[in-house]
Input
Amino acid sequence: MNRISSQYNTNSTQYFLRKQEVEMARKNTQIGSQSRIGALRDDPLAAGHLVRYQSFLSRVNVFEKNAQTLADNFQVREGYINQNLQIMQRVRELAVQGANGLNTPEDLKNMATEVDELLKELVQNANGVGPDGNSLFAGTRTNVTAFEVSMGNVPGAREPLITNVKYNGNIDTNKVEVDEHAYLDVDNAGNKIFWAEPNVLMSQRDLSSWQASEDSVISVDGINIEVNAGDNVYTIAAKINDCGAAVKASIDPMSRGLNLRTTDAHQIWLVDKNGSVLEEIGMIKDSSQMPPYNIAANVSVSGGSLFDSVIALRDAMLRGDNEAIGSRVLGVIDEGMNNLNARLAKNGSDYERAQNNIQRQSLTNLNVTKLVSREGDIDMSEAITDLKMLEYVNNATMSNAGKMYSSTLLDYIR
Output
C-alpha cells in the first residue's frame, strides 16, 4: 500500500522516468557492444557459460596457430630433405658409374670434383634455416649452425677439401600443444636425419668385476636411466635394453666390455646426468666433454653420417680405388638414402597430422563461436524493437507529466 501525499505524483513520475532512462541506456549499451551481458547480474548463468566458452575459444585459437606454425616448418623441412635425397641419388649414380672399372684414374678425379660440389650442397641444405631464421636441423639449439665443416688436405686433391662434418645441435625435442593435453613431438635432430648407418660403440675395458659405487643417473639418447649402488655391467646393459631407446646393449664375450649399437641410423648420445658411471666403465670422457663427441679414446666407433659416405666416395675416386667404391662406399650410400627416405616419410606424416589438427581446431573454433554467440550476443531486431518501445513509453510518461504539471512561470507573472 502506497501512502498518498502531495509529493507522491512528483516522486512517482521521477522514479519511473529514471527507471526508463536506465533501461534505455542499457539497451543502447547492448546494441553498441552487440552483447546482451554487460554485468553478471544481467544473466548469471549465461555469464558463467560465456566466460568458459571464451576461455576455451582463446585456447583453440592458440592450438590452431601452433599447428599452423608446425605445418609450415614441416613443409620447409621437407623441401630441404627432399632436395638432399635428390642429391644423394646423383651421388649414387656417380658411385655406380665409378665402380664399373671402365674409368681411368683421371676420369675418377673428374667425377670426384662433382661429388665434392654435391657434398657442399648437402651441407648447405643440412644447415638450412626456416622463415623465422632458426636452424631447421639442430634440435632445440635453433640459434646455431647445425653442422660444422673441417677443411684439410686430401691425397690426390689440388686444394683443401671438406674432411669432416660435425654436428653442433642436440637431440632434445619440443612438445607443442595442439589440443587439450595433446602434443606433437618435434624432433629436429640433424644427427638422426642425416645419418647413414647404425652407430656402434665397442668398449675395450674389462668390466667383469666392476660395480657402481653410488646411485647415479645416465642418459642414453635423451632417456634417463637410474643406476643403483651395486649394479654391475650386466644390470646396466639390461636397463639400457629396457629403457625404450633405439639402442641395444651387450657384453663382449672376449673383452668383457660394454657394446652399444643403435637399432636405426643415428648417432648415440651418452651423458652422465648424475655421477660418473659412463666415465667409469670407459664409454665417455670426463663430464667436461659434451656429446656426441665425448666418446672415450679407447672405444671403437663405427657407423658414419651421410656426409661421411660422400666424403669416402670422393676420397676413393681421388685414389682411383674402384673396389672400395663398388663395395663398402656404395653400400653405405644406399643405407644413408634408406634412412633419408624414412626421415622424409616421418616428416610427411608429421605434416599431415599437423594439418589434421588445423582442420579440427578450425571446426571447433566455429562451433565454440556459435556457443559464445548464443550465450552472449544480442538479438538486434528484438533489441531495436524493445528500445523503440522504451522510447515510446518514455515519451508518453513525459507527456503525461506535462499535463499533470501544466503551470508555467508565465502563470505567476502579473
Remarks:
- The mean pLDDT is 87.
- The longest helix spans residues 44-98.
- Residues 156 and 268 are 33 Å apart (CA to CA).
- The radius of gyration is 37 Å.
